Fold this sequence. Notes:
It is built from 11 helices and 19 strands. It has helices at residues 15-26, 58-77, 94-110, 119-125, 151-162, 212-216, 245-248, 252-257, 271-275, 313-326, 369-386, and strands at 5-11, 31-34, 50-51, 87-91, 115-118, 136-140, 144-145, 166-169, 174-180, 183-188, 193-201, 221-230, 241-243, 281-284, 290-293, 297-300, 334-344, 351-354, 359-363.
Amino acid sequence: MNTDKYDLIVVGGGILGTFHAYHALLLGKKVLQLEKDNYPVGATVRNFGMVVPSGMTDEWFEYGVRSLEIYQSIQKEFDISVRKNGSVYIASDDDEQTLINELKTYYDTKGYTQKILSKEQILQKYTSVKATYAKEALFFPQEISIEPNLMIYRLQEYMRLKFKEFTLLYNSPAIDCLPVGNDVEVTITNGKKFKSLKAVICNGYEFKLLFPDIFAESGQVVTKLQMMRTVSDHSSGLEGNILTGLTIRRYESFEEYCPSFKSIKTPDHYAELKAYGIHLLFKKAADGSIIIGDSHEYAGVSHFDDLGFATNNYINELMLAEAERIVNIDVRSIAGTWNGFYPQHPEKNILEYDLDDRIHIRTCIGGKGMTAGAGYAENSTQQIFNN
Length: 387
Ligand SMILES: Cc1cc2nc3c(=O)[nH]c(=O)nc-3n(C[C@H](O)[C@H](O)[C@H](O)COP(=O)(O)OP(=O)(O)OC[C@H]3O[C@@H](n4cnc5c(N)ncnc54)[C@H](O)[C@@H]3O)c2cc1C
């Protein structure tokens, strides 16, 4: 038995786990974070790195706005790869134009800064966008991006340097988490046990190591997303978070806040893309490559393996053909492809289980984690310690 006793043990080294650890450390707590892999390789490193509260609703929008502040306050002290270059939703037809103008009206009343860009302004600012595609756009200058393949490692490095009471152990799969007396006891695969007052499980899409029965009955599904990265080309004019017509037809803020959303029709050329859950996003990484995605396929949480390990080239081809309609860069010079996975729930925005006042599960944040995770974890950590 390790004799050190922690205030909080965090299981999981992704964005949710790391920001629970971070906020507990800010509260002056002693924290142990356990990651099963040699370093985090889950959804947190496989995404676009877009921090886009503008696409979210209700408290998730507020968590996103708070996350913008949190990321930027850390960036002032330590380079975690934050760039403030805004988000833009580019409309390609009359219906999408109607939706961006309706969302503008909503955000005007809410006081969330944005502006409409005319076709000329789009082409001037985003020189790689095709004139045949862009009609009008809605631009949010305050939104940021991070580098998904760097950010979590830099954040954890920052936390190690800043907080003496922080211990981070990689290669440490937690296989048991039990209340023992007044404590929580967490066991990892080599048999080592750790004690704490509280534990939070931020397990992402790993459902077999801890509390499998809870997850099997949770109603969540696992989503598989296909992603691509072009070779580096610093000359491409696609800075920031670029979101396009199918995103306007998909994101929650448009669905909830735009009166016309329910009545707009899907044009024929979008039908097959929508069937694979495809919407086209572009994110220029710091190295000049462009991340292009994504698609969505689903499997029940107990049948995760049915999603397969292979990349479906037909889906990538659909995405590349649509990308060619939107931008005039060489999208077929692909440097790499990968699949990402995350759990999501058909009705809930996140899964929260408080097993007693000591053991808490927080997972299934869906496609919102990089945007809302930092702000959400602040609130969740406060609740865990107020219990
Ligand atoms: C392709 C793709 C694109 C996306 N794009 C965006 C985007 O642009 N913007 C946005 O806001 N969101 C985006 N998302 C969503 C975002 O990436 C996720 O919501 C977020 O990363 C989830 O974080 P997490 O910490 O819950 O899970 P994960 O990142 O999966 O982390 C969970 C961690 O827990 C560890 N773990 C699990 N069980 C144990 C155990 N028993 N013991 C020890 N360790 C354990 C795992 O190894 C893993 O490292 C995207 C996701 C994908 C897949």
